[in-house]
Every structure is written in structure tokens, then in C-alpha cells.
Amino acid sequence: MDSVVSDAVGVTPLVVEPEEELKSWQTDRTRAPAATKIVVAGGFGVGKTTLVTAVSEITPLQTEALMTEASEATDDLSATPGKLTTTVAMDFGRMTLDDDLVLYLFGTPGQQRFWFMWDDLVRGAIGAVVLADTRRLKDCFPALDYFESCGMPYVVAVNHFDGSELFEPQDVREALSVPTHVPVMIMDARRRISVIETLLALVAHALEETPE
Ligand SMILES: Nc1nc2c(ncn2[C@@H]2O[C@H](COP(=O)(O)OP(=O)(O)OP(=O)(O)O)[C@@H](O)[C@H]2O)c(=O)[nH]1
Ligand SMILES: [Mg+2]
Asked: What domains sit in the chain, N to C, each tagged with a CATH number?
């Protein structure tokens, strides 16, 4: 029988749940999980919010606003005709990579008029995923330039949209002039496994670049 605690008349009795079995890493203080911050950047509508949503183990924080006819001239929706909203501040999600490593994912807003927020969003991050779409490669140049100039480790992740031509990572590397030490991969922002592979590549790369 569940034990019931009630010490005052009229107070709803508390049902004490049997104690959840704690895992070793939850009790071993020397193995407290390291929390790290990762930024997901890239051009407008490339799939940043989709990536954070696909992999987050908590309900992601989203700041989506409906797109209206007023932005037709500014925001090119030809590559993503089904897109109805845009991120106006940030996406936030959490992903536990293993017992020792928790990633906090911060998706940036893609529209140029919100780029001023990047400086705040990247503060304290260990690295960034720069998402690219091969149909509009130039849209990721501002993000590449940004992380190159601030010296933050990054990987280039090509979010392959169905129906678009599939390129080899080497072709993308050459087209974007990405240095050889920076990982370039083809992935699908909708698929959790694919996103995890991308995040693992970023963490490994960030550790190589800044081992301490
Ligand atoms: N087919 C396909 N559609 C995708 C993929 N990734 C995202 N989408 C769709 O593309 C659109 C853009 O996705 P978002 O995740 O909102 O893009 P975003 O980069 O966060 O956009 P902004 O925040 O407005 O810059 C949405 O309609 C998604 O459903 C993909 O890998 N394949
Ligand atoms: Mg978004």
C-alpha cells in the first residue's frame, strides 16, 4: 500500500511515491554532468527551429511569429513554401548527450533584422552549428563570417531538403571555402539521430580546438 501523509484536518493527503532509483552519476559528485551551450545558426528558414525541436528532450522554448504578406518582399519563401512562422528571438532546447554531458541548444533568429541578438546568444557557447541549404548557400555566409571572426569552433551542417540536389560534403566545403579542419556534414534537421551525429561532431571539434 502507498504510504499516505496527512498532518492536518482538511489538508489533502500527500501520496509518497516509492523512491526513484538514482543512477550512479546522479549521486557521484565527481561525475556531475557538464552543462555546455551550443548555438544553432544559419540563414532564414534553413531549419534551425526544426533542428532544436527534433532533438530537445524538453518542450523547446520557441518564439515563433506568424509571417504575413508584409514581409513577402523581404523573406524569400521559395525554398520553403510551407513555412508559416519565423523565429523572432531564439529557440531553446536541452539534449543529454550522455550521462556526463548536457547540451543547451540556442537557435538564433534567421532574419537579418534580428542579427543584433547574436552577440548575446553566443555568449559562453562552446561552439556553433552553421546550417546550410545547398539551394541558397550564400545565406549561411554571415554565420560563417561571424564564427570565423569571433574564433568560435563551428561545424557546417547541410540540411538536405527532399527534392533538392544531394552534394558531397567536399563539394560544399569548396563552394563555401570552409577550412579543412572544420567538419562539414550532410544531415536532416528533422531526424533526431542525424542531429545527434551533428552535435557529436561539433562537441568533438570544439574539444580539439579548445581542449581545456
Ligand atoms: N523537407 C524538409 N523540410 C524541412 C527541413 N527542415 C526544415 N524544414 C521545413 O522548412 C521550414 C523552415 O524550418 P524552420 O525550422 O522554421 O527554419 P528556421 O531556420 O528556424 O527559420 P527562421 O527562424 O525563420 O530563420 C519549415 O517549414 C520546416 O518544416 C528538412 O530537412 N526537410
Ligand atoms: Mg527558427
From this structure: 33-76+83-209 (3.40.50.300)
- Judge if the beta carbon of residue 47 lies within 6 A of ligand 1: yes
pTM of the entire predicted model: 0.85
86 Cβ below 6 A of ligand 1: yes
Helix H, strand E, coil C: the string for the chain is CCEEECCCCCCCCEEECCCCCCCHHHHCHHHCCEEEEEEEEECCCCCHHHHHHHHCCCCCECCEEECCHHHCCCCCCCCCCCCCEEECCCEEEEEEEECCEEEEEEECCCCHHHHHHHHHHCCCCCEEEEEECHHHHHHHHHHHHHHHHHCCCEEEEEECCCCCCCCCHHHHHHHHCCCCCCCEEEECCCCHHHHHHHHHHHHHHHHHHCCC
Residue 191 has pLDDT above 60, yes or no: yes
Q: For ligand 1, pick from 39, 46, 50 the residue to mutate: most ligand atoms within 8 Å of CB.
A: 50
Nearest CA to ligand 1 atom 11: 83
pLDDT digits (tens, 9 = 90+) for 89-116: 999 999 998 878 999 999 999 988 888 9
Instruction: Tell me if 80 CB under 6 Å of ligand 1.
Output: yes
Confidence of residue 5 (pLDDT cuts 50, 70, 90): very low
User: Distance, CA 191 to ligand 1 centroid (Å)?
Assistant: 12
